[in-house]
Write a structure and sequence with these properties.
Blueprint (H helix, E strand, L loop, with lengths): L17 H16 L14 H11 L11 E6 L2 H19 L6 H7 L10 H4 L2 E8 L1 E3 L5 E3 L3 H18 L3 E2 L9 H6 L5 E10 L15 H4 L2
Antiparallel strand pairs: 1-2, 2-6, 3-4, 5-6
The chain binds 3-iodo-tyrosine.
The site of 3-iodo-tyrosine has 9 residues, from α3.
Length: 222
Amino acid sequence: MRQHTHPFVPYRPERYPEEEMIRRGRAFYEHMDRRRSVRFFSAEPVPRECVELAVMAANTAPSGAHQQPWKFVIVGDPDTKRRIREAAEREERHNYEGGRLPPEWRAALAPLETTSDKGYLEVVPWLVVCFAEKYGVRPDGTRVKHYYVNESVGIACGLFVTALHTMGLSTLTHTPNPMAFLSEICGRPANERPYILFPVGYAAEDAEVPDLARKPLDQVIA
Ligand code: IYR
């Protein structure tokens, strides 16, 4: 028997025959390959439980020292959504119309046809703002060092996106730039940094996405 200094429990993940492994892997890949980032949403309501389930999935992510350095703020009230839209558009107007986006960045975004209009932030039933806890705070106010925060929160957000897609919902990994306004509107403390703003809802019936291709495997396996 191994000797532990902390509690351990047995772990016996499911195993499958090889054919079944491949069938499952292919089915999951094909499912994920149908996901697209969406900028045209329906206003149709979505149960809050779906959003909470996606956060539960995100919360299963591996994290540095199991510190789970993420916080998800779920916004459903129209007034807060409007304030977030207005603040995001104010910043983006500086980017797109005020010349704050460098030419190289502007060129990279051209195929997406993004503009400073972020109307979808008010259309969707839910906005979910993920915050990264740069450090923890003990009840006495002292700081707890957090490790690999970006990696951890990035993985959690990936699982969040995956869970929404699995429920037939759509989202966008929106990073308004700069996004400090989200801390203020969501009333978050100084140890939390806005990470990604997710509009969550059904894709509009007439939604369109850029005709983009994913890199083939030989370009992503080195
Ligand atoms: N934050 C801006 C610009 C933008 C940047 C990247 I990188 C994108 O992939 C898409 C947009 C905006 O939201 O329009």
